[in-house]
Write a structure and sequence with these properties.
Length: 355
């Protein structure tokens, strides 16, 4: 890393830290992620030289994955396993909702995309899919879609969900309803070092295998496996969890730029409106699922919301809203979407040009 880039990264982190402390003082929900996210997003839009550093983002995802895995004690794992049918419903719901959102976007904006009818379909389809921004943008690129519009749609969707849901829960008093603690409750040495080594190895293996979100998923799988087996090495220190939220918030905020606001304003407005509608219908679906499962609606709102896995799991952890259930729903949905969304596109629209 050059000195100029290192300076930009350091100044961005200082801005994020100040924003996090301000949000702690203001008692906003999830201050260590929302503060840095908003501060770096605004600064980036104002053309400040903000910069995120990939290794720090990876370390943040690694930390959060390891911390979430500690909740999967044998008793909690049995509870999650009994909800397999609800998780499958959640996957089907996400695929159907993403398809409907994409169809709605296509109906109103396809003529302005340019390209062939199939490329227009690909743009709206992958912009509407409820999956990771980088993965959906890559799949869209394979189909010749407008990747700028796809990436913008996912960035805006994630920003809206990360802001709306935590604030709504906090102001409505929906927090602290799940008292299930993680397996180990205190950080201790040398168990903490062994936990870092094991989860880091898991992230490295996932990276070598080319899996999505490798540092998050690898750390989560290893931490889950150890906890499910009754191996309690150490908890993750709270200061490290806070730091992880901060760098994840920075990595989300720097996606925005001055050019972002000038990228098809009608498209961004439609994505914003559609995202708010999806949050609403997902909440209704979660209430129905809560009635069927006996779980609290707030837990299932996070589990079925159109947000990112790390962000929704962090929300569940900070607000104490059923971390294992939310994580299980979001992880299974992520895997299913990554596996199924492209074959579904080919099945729906074929490999030849179609309207």
């Amino acid at each position: 890393m050059s000195p100029a880039i290192a300076l930009r990264v350091a100044l961005t982190l200082l801005l994020a830290l100040a924003a996090a402390w301000l949000c702690v003082w203001l008692r906003t929900p999830i201050p260590w992620m929302i503060g840095p996210l908003l501060a770096t997003a605004v600064a980036s839009i104002l053309r400040a030289p903000t910069r995120s550093w990939g290794p720090l983002r990876n370390a943040g995802q690694w930390t959060i994955g390891a911390a979430l895995g500690l909740y999967f004690t044998p008793q909690v794992t049995a509870l999650v396993g009994s909800l397999w049918w609800a998780i499958l419903l959640g996957i089907a719901w996400a695929l159907a909702l993403g398809g409907a959102f994409g169809a709605w976007l296509h109906r109103g904006h396809a003529p302005g995309f340019g390209g062939t009818p199939r490329q227009q379909r690909a743009t709206s389809y992958f912009a509407g899919a409820i999956g990771g921004a980088s993965e959906m943008t890559l799949l869209a690129e394979r189909e010749g879609a407008r990747t700028d519009l796809v990436a913008a749609a996912h960035s805006l969707r994630l920003l809206i969900v990360v802001l709306v849901i935590p604030f709504a829960f906090t102001f409505s008093g929906l927090q602290g309803i799940d008292l299930t603690p993680p397996g180990p409750r205190q950080a201790q040495w040398p168990g903490f070092a062994w936990l870092l080594a094991a989860t880091g190895a898991g992230g490295w293996v996932m990276l070598r295998l080319g899996r999505a979100n490798p540092w998050f998923m690898g750390a989560l799988v290893v931490s889950m496996g150890l906890t499910m087996a009754g191996v309690h090495l150490s908890a993750i220190p709270q200061w490290l969890v806070n730091a992880a939220q901060l760098v994840i918030g920075v990595s989300l905020g720097v996606r925005f730029s001055a050019e972002f606001l000038h990228t098809a304003p009608r498209w961004l407005a439609a994505v914003g409106l559609g995202t708010l509608a999806m949050v609403g219908v997902c909440a209704a679906f979660a209430w129905a699922l809560a009635w069927a499962t006996g779980l609290h609606p707030a837990t299932l709102i996070l589990g079925t919301s159109p947000g990112g896995i790390a962000e929704m799991a962090i929300t569940a952890k900070v607000l104490q809203l059923g971390v294992p259930v939310v994580t299980a729903f979001q992880v299974c949905r992520l895997v299913a979407v990554l596996v199924l969304v492209e074959p579904l596109f080919v099945w729906l629209y074929g490999r030849s040009v179609s309207a």
